[in-house]
Amino acid sequence: MAGGRGALPLLDDLMPWSVRPLRTGRAWVTAPEATSLRARWDLLVRAEGAERERLFGPSRSRTPMTPAAALPGRSTGTSAFARDPGPYPEPVRILHGPFDEQWLIPDHRLLDAARPELWRVADGHQLFAVEHGHVPQGAGPALSATALLPDGHSPAGRPGRIRPLYRRPGGLEPNLAPGLSALLGARYGAPVTAESVLCWALAAALPSPAGPLVPLPADGDLWADGVELGRELLRLHLRGAHDGERPRLPGGRRPYVRAAIPARPDGLRYDAAEETLFLGEGRVSPVPSGAWDFRVGGVRMLELWFGRRTVPAEGLAAVGPRDWPRERTSELLELITVLALFDGLGPRQAALRDRLDRADGPDRADALTRDGLRAAGVLPVPAAARRPASVLDHQEEGPDGQFALL
Question: Could you tell me if 167 and 388 are in contact, meaning their C-beta atoms sit under 8 angstroms apart?
Fold first, then answer.
């Protein structure tokens, strides 16, 4: 393609509204188990004075004396935590970086930057594209997708952006550049929805310092093949969130616990010849090498998942189960399954990208570049499309109980 990768559209061109990652400011507000969060909350509520201050972990944005608006859709205290903690807010399931589902206390007084604009549109219809950030020579996909509220955490410490698929609750107003759907629909001879754009991006996006690059081919058959592959990738990312079907490997390839995982496994290692994952004296197999070596930003996902649950923490973050919970084993087996299935789709994804990369192929000659999007009037994106949609139909409680119409 003339102009090389620099001519390719960015995901930012196609899905223009984005939000920066959440910044909690304190590690103890998230945990792999919801029960840990309740125990931490109770300890903080019972503490007083300097001890409460120490446990809270004050920052420039939040201290025990900082009032804050309730998060959209949440009924929590808005006065300073030190004056009135209020009832314990039920934790919410979040995606803590790629492939790690955890729990979060949804109290704005405890979070440095909770990104309320994300909470306003998070519902059963919403999906989020999460950029992983660019890491030179870092192996792994450029983005992922989730139906959970993502915190946007990057394993390699270079976070990207969070892009909701819809700008309003209820799956309304696709977060696409105005005119993009019509342009691509005419080009490929079939309707192009926000979800099909997301699926194509999951299958075809390439990492770059400016953000994921998304090639748009000339050939409608290539587009359809990529969208179909992307739908399979999306189903894996969602883990049954929309259709209720949890990911499963074929019989004989499903991982099982062959030796019980000890209460406190002292390390993680992998034997490729035996396809076995060792957690201390515990053994799980079969674990395909592709699942073990699956990385995002150059970071191996299974090692990251294990480390977050076993590396000693301090303060309230150290409050958690003393032994290895049974639920944790179930989550590990599902994570192995998901990573193995992603690795299994790798050859199809490589073949798709090879078709896109052929210098003498028909798919490159008329591919849609950023200049082509400008010529079609899709770029530049109107400034309003990069801002959150106005919400005029409900009230939200502000700091100290004040109400504001948004």
Answer: yes
